[in-house]
């Protein structure tokens, strides 16, 4: 699939922008702070309904303005569509002119995989980054997953509040089971989705990694969760009432899930070099891309924010050769010289896209 046109109004440092995109490679280059990532952010917003950089949506509205509008036209194999997002005091999302009611109705309309410098944190930082990686992939393919996850997180918050009330307001402990029951029910569903997708990752990750590194490193991935079935979760939550009351939060559940990646049997975030960590994240992202492609029957859009500068020319060209049928949006500080690929080059300067050249 690809995005054919993008329109911005009062979005970040753009006053107005209207841009046709190439269905293959689009390169946005320019100095720091000019608005390259802002374009990627706008596309991401239309796909996922939120930014990958901030939870505060007011930040997206151009300073001194009171609304912002982003519109993208997309083409899929069997249909086309327009997504428009208006940010004012609240956010309104429109699909083909019709306002959508819940975020899960938007997910999956535009399929995308993003690669930004922050993604190196997937391996290096705590488990929440890894869960986010899974959530982003599964969410756009199984909107019901996000629905379950939101219910889970809401219930978790209520349970945590109640734990504090037991401690400080002497509320009854046995009422906790009401939350346990609900949490366990949602957890079972969430884990089932995560297991399904972990299996898909397992099937592809190692081959993809060997392909891009041309090395004989073996990658393995291991998923960790506290339990699998509703009954197991319920039992576990019940067993930990005392500890949870003491801590004031829920110590067991899918909000603690994690995965570990091993290179030749050793944990990559501990033993791997910087370059190995970076390449493993790339392999993970390309695995995500392949999984989405198999599921929807066409390639998702790839957003590469500041990523190409991290790769040597050989790996860069290799990557783009593999992306022949993929729409790629790339940001970088210098215009990239690419051979044998169809591409558009956009110069970004102070919230304007100055010259456009097509090759
Ligand atoms: N709400 C806003 N209103 C106006 N300008 C904004 C707003 N939010 C961010 N900016 C401006 O947008 C610019 C940053 O844009 P962006 O992150 O796209 O830069 P970039 O070209 O990707 O730079 P780099 O190469 O450093 O990554 C900054 O100049 C910032 O001041
Ligand atoms: Mg940037």
CATH superfamily of the largest domain: RecF/RecN/SMC, N-terminal domain
Do you know the CATH topology of the largest domain? Glutathione S-transferase Yfyf (Class Pi), Chain A, domain 2
Tell me how many strands there are. Answer: 15
Strand content: 15-25%
Tags for this model:
359 residues; alpha/beta; 6-stranded antiparallel beta sheet; 10 helices; 15 strands; binds adenosine-5'-triphosphate
Topology:
Layout: E1 2-11, E2 14-20, E3 25-29, H1 36-48, E4 68-75, E5 80-87, E6 91-95, E7 98-99, E8 112-115, H2 121-124, H3 127-141, H4 143-169, H5 176-213, E9 219-224, H6 230-239, H7 241-247, E10 258-263, E11 266-267, H8 268-271, H9 274-296, E12 301-305, H10 313-322, E13 328-332, E14 343-349, E15 352-358
Parallel strand pairs: 3-13, 3-14, 8-12, 12-13
Antiparallel strand pairs: 1-2, 1-4, 4-5, 5-6, 6-7, 9-10, 10-11, 14-15
Adenosine-5'-triphosphate is lined by residues 12-13, 30, 32-38, 59, 61-63, 306, 331, 333, 348.
């Amino acid at each position: 699939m690809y995005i054919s046109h993008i329109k911005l109004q009062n979005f970040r440092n753009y006053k107005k922008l209207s841009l046709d995109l190439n269905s293959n490679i689009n390169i946005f280059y320019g100095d720091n702070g000019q608005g390259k990532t802002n374009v990627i952010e706008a596309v991401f917003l239309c796909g996922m309904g939120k930014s990958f950089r901030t939870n505060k949506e007011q930040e997206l509205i151009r300073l001194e303005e009171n609304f912002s509008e982003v519109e993208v036209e997309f083409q899929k194999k069997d249909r086309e569509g327009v997504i428009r997002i208006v940010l004012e005091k609240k956010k309104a999302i429109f699909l083909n002119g019709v306002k959508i009611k819940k975020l899960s109705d938007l997910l999956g309309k535009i399929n995308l995989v993003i690669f930004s410098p922050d993604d190196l944190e997937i391996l290096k930082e705590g488990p929440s980054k890894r869960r986010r990686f899974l959530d982003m992939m599964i969410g756009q393919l199984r909107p019901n997953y996000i629905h379950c996850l939101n219910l889970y997180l809401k219930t978790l918050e209520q349970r945590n509040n109640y734990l504090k009330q037991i401690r400080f307001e002497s509320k009854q402990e046995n009422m906790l089971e009401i939350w346990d029951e609900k949490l366990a029910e949602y957890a079972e569903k969430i884990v089932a989705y995560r297991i399904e997708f972990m299996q898909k990752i397992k099937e592809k990750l190692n081959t993809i990694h060997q392909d891009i590194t041309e090395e004989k490193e073996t990658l393995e991935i291991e998923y960790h969760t506290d339990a699998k079935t509703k009954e197991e979760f319920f039992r576990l939550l019940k067993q930990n009432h005392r500890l949870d009351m003491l801590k004031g939060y829920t110590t067991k559940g899918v909000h603690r899930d994690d995965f570990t990646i091993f290179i030749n049997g050793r944990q990559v975030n501990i033993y791997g070099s910087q370059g190995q960590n970076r390449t493993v994240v790339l392999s993970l992202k390309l695995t995500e891309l392949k999984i989405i492609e198999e599921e929807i029957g066409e390639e998702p859009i790839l957003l590469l924010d500041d990523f190409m500068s991290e790769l040597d020319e050989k790996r860069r060209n290799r990557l783009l050769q593999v992306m022949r049928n993929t729409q790629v949006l790339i940001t970088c500080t210098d215009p990239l010289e690419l051979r044998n690929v169809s591409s558009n080059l956009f110069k970004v300067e102070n919230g304007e896209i100055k010259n456009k050249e097509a090759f």
